[in-house]
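Hey,

Quick one before I head out. I ran the complex with fe (ii) ion overnight. Inputs first:
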Amino acid sequence: MCAERYTDTEYAKQEWQNVWSKTWNVAGLSYHIEEPGEYVTTNLGSESIICVRGDDNQLRAFYNSCPHRGTRISEEGESFINHFTCPYHGWQFDRQGNTVHVPNEDDYPQGSPCGRVGLKEIQCRDLFGFIWVNMDPDACSLEEFLGEVVTTDLASYNIQDTVRVLNMTADSPCNWKIITDNFNEAYHVQVLHPGLIPYIEANHEACQFDTLAEGHNRGWFPSHNPSVLQEGDEVADHLAVIMRQWNLDPDDYYGKENHGRIRHALQNAKRELGELKGYKHYENYASYQFTDYVIYNIFPNTVLSVGPDGVQLLRPRPHPSGDPQRCLFDHWWMVHPVKGVKTTPSPAGGPDLPVKDCEHDQFLYGEKSLGRTADEDLSIAKMQQEGLSSSGFQGFNMAHQERRVQRFHEVLNDYMNKA
Ligand code: FES
Ligand SMILES: [Fe+2]
């Protein structure tokens, strides 16, 4: 593999045509677009898309480009409108994308634009609580794109019942693939994230990695249990707090020989007490879902890390400037509301977060923390970007446990080689 896919502007342009314009991408959250007139505007690379619920209750997506002279008609974010109004000359569009008002309508020799031209529509779907869009009019269905494993697995978590309590975007100094590569392997965990070892399995032989036929992949990490790599007999504080919540006494599990029992004890306790404590989303969980983290890497860039009580989206988007050595990294934390629970620990560190829909926070990487684990991941991104640009870069020499990275690049090659 050569480095051009991480550094080259021409490669990035081709990637836009062959990858971003052809794949399904998450545009926003379904609960923001439940009523007619509610809309979400999202940006991908230099493109911008508006998703809006129409008066007929249909969800539609449109390019954010005025059919008069191309101006963007909506800023990024979510809100409600009766009509979209272009800020330049005041053309107006209804919730179905039709032009409904044009100043000096009689001054168009070709006939009034109203009813004749409108916003350009693209494919749009609502699934698992996410709004998905695809710019390719000939794209396969979202379910076909995701495949059976991803579709079945994600459906079992009822993500549509979650609320987004963290929504950060860091303008980051690396190609988007440096971030997807990072989430396509866990080889780095033992080195870069030693803080995870007390409660997530970091030994690859005790995890499961699957590459899926549709080009996506999955990594399963037994969790809420000290990794076999953990030294010492203690149960870490973070895990002990969770155990006590479920009526388990961490002292009963002191000693390395007892650590292997914690995960099953928690699964049993959660199955028994979950409903009583208001954890409605546990109702149909399989045992592993009570404790484990599973990461779904949906090609190209939708990374969903799913745990017992919520989902993190860890997503790099191509940079609006077109610079292949920059990207926008999104970190969302979406949790299942539990009756009586008003706050949730933040994966971005700092104070607990209120369990309610939050504002978007965008900043330059380095200005703020994205959370300890994400900061650790990103800390390496700039260094890797710089190293990949070296004349001494020799391609990748990867371990078997990095086969999801290997597979990702094979899938990318397939897309790039399509005419
Ligand atoms: S560019 Fe939108 S009204 Fe003129
Ligand atoms: Fe990581």
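The longest helix spans residues 372-388.

Talk tomorrow,
K.
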